[in-house]
Amino acid sequence: MNLDHEKKLAGEAAAELVEDGMTVGLGTGSTAAYAVRRLGERVRAGLHVRGLPTSTHTEALAREVGIPLVDFAEVTRLDLTLDGADEIDPDLNLIKGGGGALFREKIVAAASRRLIIFADHTKLVPQLGAFPLPVEVNPFGWQVAAERIAALGAHVTLRQSGEGPFVSDNHGYILDCFFGKIDDPVALERHLAAVTGVMESGLFVRMAERALLGDGQAVRTIQPAP
Ligand code: 5RP
Fold this sequence. Notes:
- By secondary structure, the chain is α/β, with parallel strands linked by helices.
- It folds into two domains: 3-124 and 205-214, Rossmann fold; 133-196, Alpha-Beta Plaits, CATH 3.30.70.
- 29% of the residues lie in helices and 28% in strands.
- The chain has helices at 3-15, 30-44, 56-65, 102-110, 142-151, 185-193, and strands at residues 23-26, 50-53, 78-83, 87-88, 94-95, 112-120, 133-137, 155-158, 160-161, 164-165, 173-178, 198-201, 203-204, 210-215, 218-222.
- The structure holds ribulose-5-phosphate.
- Ribulose-5-phosphate binds at residues 27-32, 83-86, 96-102, 105.
């Protein structure tokens, strides 16, 4: 089982969904990078698109592969966003933010008519929660937010990078919050949003239209039950 190959298959399949003239949200992570590279190839072959990256890392990659970029000063409605995920449940609720880009990823997804998620097959789980949920918080008073989230039932860890806390593109800190199995993602997202200091959580509830999963040599499509 070659997970990297599955990421590539899924990412490249996602890039094929982009049509001429679209404005496209560009996700972050090792899987999203495959979609960005493939989209770059299509642009170099004549496809006209504009991309809106979800991180400085993806922005640099998109520039490298030749995708013209826009920002929210120019456009507030996107046709499609292509992004990876850390966990995907059968209803297509997601945990995102393993790469620390969840805030921009959620803003971009929320501005998109369609969110397409793609991943290797291991990301599909019966229930969310084995992967600690990333929650972005304002650095000022992050300890207060961490205490409130712990009171919701999580084991909370401040994400580190080298000597100090990890700082997102958005100048936030990330709390990795292990809740165990998440029975009610809708309620948990609401509870987290109500914690003062929380900028966004990595729970993406009912946002994705479909997920493309690399599975061996094939790509499987998952769509939520109507
Ligand atoms: C970044 C994300 C990524 O989509 C998620 O972490 C998956 O990354 P990878 O494709 O490298 O496994 O949410 O914030």
